[in-house]
Design a protein that fits this description.
239 residues
Length: 239
C-alpha cells in the first residue's frame, strides 16, 4: 500500500499530548509572569519605602570591582559637588525601568532580595523634610556600596567650582574677600574725596565686605543653607 492506514487512537493520543503540552506551557508562562509581577511590586515597594539594610548577600566573585565604592569615596564626591546620598524613599523623581531591571538581574545572579538602596544626586531631586546625575547604590557591608545604575545628564564641568565656596567657612570667606576687593576696584577714584587714597580704598573695601557678609548671612539663615560636609547625608533641607 502506498498510504499507511491512519490509526484513530494514535491520532487522538497525539492531539491530547499536544494539548497538554500547550496547557503546560501556558501554565508555566502564567506562573512566570505572576512571579515576575510580584518581584516588580516588591522592588517598587523597597525603593519607595526605603527598607533599611547595612548589607546584602552578594556573591563577590560576580561583582564588578569598578562599581564598588567605600562610603568615604561617596562622601568626598558629595562634598566636592554638593550632592546628597540618601535612601531612595526621599527621591522625588522617577527611578527608570532600566535601574529596576538591573536590580532584578542582580537578584537573579546573586539569589538574593536586595534592600537598603541609596541614591546620590543633587538636593533638588529629593523630597527633603523640614527638619543632575542620580546614581543608585546597594550596600555591600562594612561601609562599601555597589553602584547598580546611573542615569540622567552628567554634572556640569564647572559645578565643583561653582559650589566650592560652600565647601567650608574658609572657602566662603576667601570668595567674599575676593569679590569685595574686585568690587572696590570698580568704584571710581575720588568718588568721596577729591584725591583717592589708601584710607579711602580701605573704607570702601570694608563697607563692601560688610554688605556682602550681610547678604550671605541673610541668604544662608533665611533659606537654611549649610556647608557641604553637613548636608551630604542629611534628609533635612535646612540641615
Amino acid at each position: 500500500m502506498l498510504f499507511k492506514r491512519l490509526e484513530l487512537e494514535e491520532i487522538l493520543r497525539n492531539i491530547k499530548s499536544r494539548s497538554q503540552n500547550a496547557e503546560q506551557l501556558l501554565t508555566n508562562v502564567k506562573s512566570w509572569l505572576e512571579a515576575d509581577l510580584k518581584r516588580d511590586v516588591r522592588i517598587e515597594s523597597t525603593l519607595s519605602t526605603g527598607r533599611p539594610a547595612d548589607s546584602n548577600s552578594f556573591v563577590f566573585d560576580l561583582l564588578d570591582a569598578d562599581k564598588i565604592y567605600h562610603i568615604n569615596h561617596i562622601k568626598t564626591i558629595c562634598i566636592d559637588y554638593r550632592l546628597r546620598f540618601l535612601d531612595t524613599k526621599y527621591f522625588k523623581s522617577e527611578i527608570p525601568d532600566a535601574a529596576k531591571q538591573k536590580i532584578k538581574e542582580l537578584e537573579t545572579a546573586h539569589s538574593a532580595d536586595l534592600k537598603g538602596f541609596k541614591i546620590m544626586a543633587p538636593s533638588r531631586m529629593f523630597k527633603l523634610e523640614d527638619k543632575n546625575d542620580p546614581m543608585l547604590f546597594a550596600p555591600i557591608g562594612n561601609g562599601y556600596f555597589y553602584l547598580i545604575h546611573k542615569w540622567g545628564r552628567d554634572l556640569h564641568p564647572l559645578r565643583k567650582w561653582v559650589v566650592w565656596p560652600l565647601k567650608n567657612m574658609v572657602n566662603l570667606l576667601f570668595i567674599i574677600l575676593l569679590i569685595s576687593f574686585l568690587s572696590t576696584l570698580v568704584v571710581p577714584e575720588g568718588l568721596f574725596s577729591k584725591q583717592g587714597s589708601t584710607a579711602e580704598f580701605l573704607i570702601i573695601f570694608f563697607f563692601v565686605f560688610k554688605s556682602i557678609i550681610a547678604v550671605v548671612l541673610f541668604y544662608g539663615i533665611s533659606l537654611g543653607k549649610n556647608f557641604n560636609p553637613a548636608i551630604w547625608n542629611s534628609k533635612y533641607f535646612n540641615a
